[in-house]
Write a structure and sequence with these properties.
13 helices; 76% helix
Protein backbone atom coordinates (compact mmCIF):
# COMPACT_ATOMS: atom_id res chain seq x y z
CA UNK A 1 0.00 0.00 0.00
CA UNK A 2 2.89 2.36 0.61
CA UNK A 3 3.56 2.58 -3.13
CA UNK A 4 0.04 3.83 -3.76
CA UNK A 5 0.51 6.73 -1.38
CA UNK A 6 2.97 8.18 -3.91
CA UNK A 7 -0.08 9.16 -6.00
CA UNK A 8 -0.52 12.05 -3.56
CA UNK A 9 2.38 13.69 -5.41
CA UNK A 10 -0.02 14.27 -8.33
CA UNK A 11 -1.89 16.71 -6.09
CA UNK A 12 1.02 18.14 -4.11
CA UNK A 13 3.53 18.51 -6.98
CA UNK A 14 1.35 19.12 -10.04
CA UNK A 15 -2.13 20.35 -9.18
CA UNK A 16 -1.28 22.48 -6.14
CA UNK A 17 1.36 24.70 -7.83
CA UNK A 18 -0.98 25.28 -10.79
CA UNK A 19 -3.81 26.40 -8.51
CA UNK A 20 -1.59 28.54 -6.29
CA UNK A 21 0.15 30.13 -9.30
CA UNK A 22 -3.23 31.05 -10.76
CA UNK A 23 -4.43 32.58 -7.48
CA UNK A 24 -1.21 34.53 -6.90
CA UNK A 25 -1.32 35.97 -10.41
CA UNK A 26 -4.99 36.90 -10.16
CA UNK A 27 -4.28 38.78 -6.92
CA UNK A 28 -1.29 40.55 -8.45
CA UNK A 29 1.16 39.00 -5.98
CA UNK A 30 3.36 37.51 -8.70
CA UNK A 31 4.35 39.42 -11.85
CA UNK A 32 5.78 38.57 -15.26
CA UNK A 33 9.36 39.33 -14.18
CA UNK A 34 9.20 36.84 -11.31
CA UNK A 35 7.62 34.25 -13.59
CA UNK A 36 10.55 34.58 -16.01
CA UNK A 37 13.03 34.14 -13.14
CA UNK A 38 11.29 30.97 -11.97
CA UNK A 39 11.41 29.53 -15.48
CA UNK A 40 15.14 30.24 -15.74
CA UNK A 41 15.87 28.76 -12.31
CA UNK A 42 14.11 25.56 -13.33
CA UNK A 43 15.72 25.23 -16.78
CA UNK A 44 19.25 26.29 -15.90
CA UNK A 45 19.65 25.22 -12.28
CA UNK A 46 17.34 22.41 -11.17
CA UNK A 47 17.17 20.57 -14.49
CA UNK A 48 20.96 20.47 -14.74
CA UNK A 49 21.41 19.27 -11.16
CA UNK A 50 18.72 16.59 -11.44
CA UNK A 51 20.16 15.35 -14.75
CA UNK A 52 23.58 14.95 -13.15
CA UNK A 53 22.25 13.00 -10.16
CA UNK A 54 19.93 10.72 -12.15
CA UNK A 55 22.50 9.81 -14.82
CA UNK A 56 25.11 9.17 -12.14
CA UNK A 57 23.24 5.99 -11.20
CA UNK A 58 21.70 5.28 -14.60
CA UNK A 59 21.90 1.56 -15.52
CA UNK A 60 23.87 1.58 -18.79
CA UNK A 61 22.69 -0.69 -21.60
CA UNK A 62 22.66 -0.86 -25.42
CA UNK A 63 18.99 0.21 -25.25
CA UNK A 64 20.05 3.70 -24.24
CA UNK A 65 21.60 4.21 -27.69
CA UNK A 66 18.18 3.70 -29.31
CA UNK A 67 16.06 5.54 -26.76
CA UNK A 68 17.00 9.13 -27.73
CA UNK A 69 15.65 8.60 -31.24
CA UNK A 70 12.25 7.84 -29.76
CA UNK A 71 12.31 11.42 -28.52
CA UNK A 72 11.83 12.43 -32.17
CA UNK A 73 8.74 10.22 -32.45
CA UNK A 74 7.18 11.90 -29.41
CA UNK A 75 7.03 15.07 -31.53
CA UNK A 76 6.62 13.76 -35.09
CA UNK A 77 3.83 11.20 -34.49
CA UNK A 78 1.34 13.56 -32.79
CA UNK A 79 2.59 16.36 -35.07
CA UNK A 80 1.59 14.50 -38.24
CA UNK A 81 -1.83 13.71 -36.79
CA UNK A 82 -2.15 17.32 -35.65
CA UNK A 83 -1.38 18.70 -39.10
CA UNK A 84 -4.00 16.43 -40.65
CA UNK A 85 -6.68 17.27 -38.08
CA UNK A 86 -5.95 21.01 -38.21
CA UNK A 87 -7.14 21.27 -41.81
CA UNK A 88 -10.72 21.62 -40.59
CA UNK A 89 -9.88 25.11 -39.32
CA UNK A 90 -9.98 27.95 -41.85
CA UNK A 91 -7.86 30.39 -39.85
CA UNK A 92 -4.09 29.67 -40.08
CA UNK A 93 -3.64 30.95 -36.52
CA UNK A 94 -6.06 28.27 -35.30
CA UNK A 95 -4.35 25.66 -37.46
CA UNK A 96 -0.99 26.56 -35.98
CA UNK A 97 -2.22 26.57 -32.38
CA UNK A 98 -3.89 23.18 -32.86
CA UNK A 99 -0.75 21.70 -34.43
CA UNK A 100 1.52 23.01 -31.66
CA UNK A 101 -0.87 21.64 -29.02
CA UNK A 102 -0.68 18.24 -30.70
CA UNK A 103 3.09 18.19 -31.26
CA UNK A 104 4.30 19.31 -27.85
CA UNK A 105 3.56 17.03 -24.90
CA UNK A 106 4.37 17.83 -21.28
CA UNK A 107 7.19 15.30 -21.13
CA UNK A 108 9.76 17.15 -19.06
CA UNK A 109 7.89 18.41 -16.02
CA UNK A 110 4.68 16.41 -15.74
CA UNK A 111 6.01 13.29 -17.46
CA UNK A 112 9.22 13.40 -15.44
CA UNK A 113 7.40 13.72 -12.12
CA UNK A 114 4.95 10.93 -12.99
CA UNK A 115 7.79 8.60 -14.04
CA UNK A 116 9.54 9.48 -10.78
CA UNK A 117 6.37 8.65 -8.82
CA UNK A 118 6.32 5.23 -10.48
CA UNK A 119 9.99 4.26 -10.64
CA UNK A 120 11.97 6.87 -8.68
CA UNK A 121 15.27 8.00 -10.21
CA UNK A 122 15.43 5.38 -12.97
CA UNK A 123 12.10 6.43 -14.42
CA UNK A 124 13.07 10.09 -14.18
CA UNK A 125 16.36 9.46 -15.98
CA UNK A 126 14.65 7.65 -18.87
CA UNK A 127 12.33 10.63 -19.39
CA UNK A 128 15.25 13.06 -19.50
CA UNK A 129 16.88 11.17 -22.37
CA UNK A 130 13.68 11.45 -24.41
CA UNK A 131 13.01 15.06 -23.43
CA UNK A 132 16.43 16.11 -24.75
CA UNK A 133 15.35 15.39 -28.32
CA UNK A 134 11.95 17.03 -27.83
CA UNK A 135 13.66 20.23 -26.70
CA UNK A 136 15.89 20.09 -29.78
CA UNK A 137 12.91 19.67 -32.12
CA UNK A 138 11.13 22.55 -30.40
CA UNK A 139 13.79 24.85 -31.83
CA UNK A 140 14.53 23.29 -35.20
CA UNK A 141 11.01 22.09 -36.17
CA UNK A 142 8.19 23.53 -34.04
CA UNK A 143 9.33 27.15 -34.16
CA UNK A 144 9.71 27.25 -37.96
CA UNK A 145 6.35 25.50 -38.40
CA UNK A 146 4.66 27.99 -36.08
CA UNK A 147 6.32 30.78 -38.09
CA UNK A 148 4.89 29.26 -41.27
CA UNK A 149 1.34 29.45 -39.91
CA UNK A 150 1.93 33.01 -38.78
CA UNK A 151 3.10 33.96 -42.26
CA UNK A 152 -0.02 32.44 -43.78
CA UNK A 153 -2.08 34.92 -41.80
CA UNK A 154 -0.03 38.12 -41.99
CA UNK A 155 2.19 39.66 -44.63
CA UNK A 156 5.84 38.60 -44.69
CA UNK A 157 6.98 42.18 -44.24
CA UNK A 158 5.44 42.34 -40.76
CA UNK A 159 6.42 38.83 -39.62
CA UNK A 160 9.32 37.46 -37.64
CA UNK A 161 12.41 36.33 -39.52
CA UNK A 162 14.11 33.36 -37.89
CA UNK A 163 17.82 32.77 -38.37
CA UNK A 164 19.20 29.61 -36.82
CA UNK A 165 22.83 28.91 -36.02
CA UNK A 166 24.56 26.07 -34.26
CA UNK A 167 25.29 28.32 -31.30
CA UNK A 168 21.68 29.49 -30.97
CA UNK A 169 20.36 25.94 -31.05
CA UNK A 170 22.84 23.99 -28.96
CA UNK A 171 25.14 26.34 -27.05
CA UNK A 172 22.69 28.33 -24.96
CA UNK A 173 22.22 28.36 -21.22
CA UNK A 174 18.93 26.52 -21.68
CA UNK A 175 20.91 23.46 -22.82
CA UNK A 176 22.92 23.14 -19.60
CA UNK A 177 20.90 20.08 -18.63
CA UNK A 178 22.86 18.26 -21.34
CA UNK A 179 26.05 19.07 -19.45
CA UNK A 180 24.52 17.55 -16.33
CA UNK A 181 23.61 14.40 -18.23
CA UNK A 182 27.10 13.90 -19.64
CA UNK A 183 28.73 14.72 -16.30
CA UNK A 184 26.56 12.13 -14.54
CA UNK A 185 27.34 9.49 -17.18
CA UNK A 186 31.06 10.27 -16.89
CA UNK A 187 30.98 9.77 -13.13
CA UNK A 188 29.04 6.52 -13.54
CA UNK A 189 31.37 5.15 -16.24
CA UNK A 190 34.36 6.23 -14.17
CA UNK A 191 33.19 3.99 -11.34
CA UNK A 192 32.74 6.85 -8.88
CA UNK A 193 29.90 5.87 -6.51
CA UNK A 194 27.26 8.48 -5.81
CA UNK A 195 27.10 9.37 -2.09
CA UNK A 196 23.99 7.96 -0.40
CA UNK A 197 22.94 11.39 0.83
CA UNK A 198 22.14 12.43 -2.76
CA UNK A 199 19.18 10.01 -2.85
CA UNK A 200 17.24 12.17 -0.39
CA UNK A 201 18.48 15.38 -2.01
CA UNK A 202 17.31 14.12 -5.41
CA UNK A 203 13.77 13.52 -4.18
CA UNK A 204 13.66 16.96 -2.57
CA UNK A 205 14.77 18.66 -5.77
CA UNK A 206 12.28 16.73 -7.95
CA UNK A 207 9.45 18.09 -5.82
CA UNK A 208 10.96 21.59 -5.80
CA UNK A 209 11.48 21.47 -9.56
CA UNK A 210 7.85 20.51 -10.15
CA UNK A 211 6.71 23.51 -8.13
CA UNK A 212 9.06 25.95 -9.84
CA UNK A 213 7.99 24.64 -13.26
CA UNK A 214 4.24 24.44 -12.71
CA UNK A 215 3.72 27.62 -10.68
CA UNK A 216 4.40 29.91 -13.67
CA UNK A 217 2.04 27.79 -15.77
CA UNK A 218 -0.78 28.56 -13.34
CA UNK A 219 0.01 32.26 -13.71
CA UNK A 220 -0.53 32.07 -17.49
CA UNK A 221 -3.99 30.48 -17.36
CA UNK A 222 -7.01 32.56 -18.41
CA UNK A 223 -10.16 30.47 -17.98
CA UNK A 224 -12.52 33.13 -19.32
CA UNK A 225 -10.83 33.19 -22.73
CA UNK A 226 -9.94 29.50 -22.97
CA UNK A 227 -13.54 28.31 -22.41
CA UNK A 228 -14.49 29.32 -25.96
CA UNK A 229 -12.11 26.75 -27.46
CA UNK A 230 -12.72 23.55 -25.49
CA UNK A 231 -14.95 22.16 -28.23
CA UNK A 232 -12.32 22.96 -30.86
CA UNK A 233 -9.68 20.83 -29.13
CA UNK A 234 -11.85 17.80 -28.33
CA UNK A 235 -10.19 15.81 -31.12
CA UNK A 236 -6.85 16.23 -29.33
CA UNK A 237 -8.07 13.87 -26.60
CA UNK A 238 -8.02 10.68 -28.74
CA UNK A 239 -4.94 11.99 -30.54
CA UNK A 240 -2.88 12.40 -27.35
CA UNK A 241 -4.31 9.50 -25.33
CA UNK A 242 -4.99 6.83 -27.98
CA UNK A 243 -3.34 7.36 -31.38
CA UNK A 244 0.05 8.64 -30.22
CA UNK A 245 0.63 6.06 -27.43
CA UNK A 246 -0.58 3.25 -29.70
CA UNK A 247 2.01 4.04 -32.39
CA UNK A 248 4.90 4.75 -30.02
CA UNK A 249 4.30 1.81 -27.69
CA UNK A 250 3.94 -0.67 -30.54
CA UNK A 251 7.29 0.48 -31.93
CA UNK A 252 8.87 0.49 -28.47
CA UNK A 253 8.01 -3.18 -27.91
CA UNK A 254 10.07 -4.07 -30.97
CA UNK A 255 13.24 -2.68 -29.38
CA UNK A 256 12.70 -2.90 -25.62
CA UNK A 257 11.44 -5.47 -23.13
CA UNK A 258 12.25 -3.78 -19.82
CA UNK A 259 9.05 -3.16 -17.83
CA UNK A 260 10.30 0.03 -16.20
CA UNK A 261 11.43 1.53 -19.48
CA UNK A 262 8.28 0.57 -21.41
CA UNK A 263 6.00 1.93 -18.70
CA UNK A 264 8.01 5.15 -18.49
CA UNK A 265 7.64 5.51 -22.25
CA UNK A 266 3.88 5.00 -21.93
CA UNK A 267 3.73 7.72 -19.28
CA UNK A 268 5.32 10.11 -21.78
CA UNK A 269 3.37 8.88 -24.81
CA UNK A 270 0.10 9.77 -23.07
CA UNK A 271 1.36 13.11 -21.72
CA UNK A 272 -1.01 16.08 -22.18
CA UNK A 273 -0.30 19.29 -24.09
CA UNK A 274 2.77 21.13 -22.81
CA UNK A 275 3.00 24.74 -21.66
CA UNK A 276 5.65 25.12 -24.41
CA UNK A 277 2.77 24.92 -26.88
CA UNK A 278 1.23 27.98 -25.22
CA UNK A 279 4.54 29.85 -25.18
CA UNK A 280 5.20 29.03 -28.85
CA UNK A 281 1.77 30.35 -29.80
CA UNK A 282 2.52 33.58 -27.94
CA UNK A 283 5.84 34.04 -29.69
CA UNK A 284 4.35 33.57 -33.17
CA UNK A 285 0.98 35.25 -32.52
CA UNK A 286 -1.06 32.08 -33.01
CA UNK A 287 -4.29 31.36 -31.10
CA UNK A 288 -2.97 31.29 -27.53
CA UNK A 289 -6.40 30.66 -26.01
CA UNK A 290 -6.83 27.48 -28.05
CA UNK A 291 -3.47 26.21 -26.80
CA UNK A 292 -4.45 27.05 -23.20
CA UNK A 293 -7.75 25.19 -23.67
CA UNK A 294 -5.84 22.15 -24.90
CA UNK A 295 -3.39 22.36 -22.01
CA UNK A 296 -6.16 22.60 -19.40
CA UNK A 297 -8.45 19.89 -20.80
CA UNK A 298 -5.79 17.28 -21.57
CA UNK A 299 -3.93 17.90 -18.30
CA UNK A 300 -7.13 17.47 -16.28
CA UNK A 301 -7.91 14.16 -18.02
CA UNK A 302 -4.34 12.94 -17.63
CA UNK A 303 -4.12 13.66 -13.91
CA UNK A 304 -7.64 12.49 -13.09
CA UNK A 305 -7.75 9.29 -15.15
CA UNK A 306 -4.87 8.40 -17.49
CA UNK A 307 -1.93 8.43 -15.08
CA UNK A 308 -3.82 6.80 -12.16
CA UNK A 309 -4.75 3.95 -14.54
CA UNK A 310 -1.13 3.55 -15.67
CA UNK A 311 0.03 3.67 -12.05
CA UNK A 312 -2.37 0.95 -10.85
CA UNK A 313 -1.67 -1.23 -13.90
CA UNK A 314 2.11 -0.95 -13.35
CA UNK A 315 1.83 -1.86 -9.68
CA UNK A 316 -0.36 -4.89 -10.39
CA UNK A 317 2.19 -6.39 -12.81
Amino acid sequence: MEDYTRLIFVLTDLVAPLVIGYILHQKGIINEKLIDKLVQINIIGLATFLSLLSFWVMPLSPELLILPFFGILYVLVPGIFGLLFSRRFHNPLDQGAYTMSAMLGNLGTLGGVCAFILFSETGFAYTQIIVTFQNMLLVILCFPLAHYFEMKQVSKSSGLHIHFSFKEMFLTKNQLALVGMFAGLALDIGGIPRPAVFADIFQLFVHAGAWIAMLPVGCLIDFSRAKHFYESVLSLIPLRFLLTPAVICLLARIFFDDHVLLTSMLVLATAPTAINAVLTCRIYKLNVDMAVASFLSTTAIYLAAIFPLIFVSAKLQ
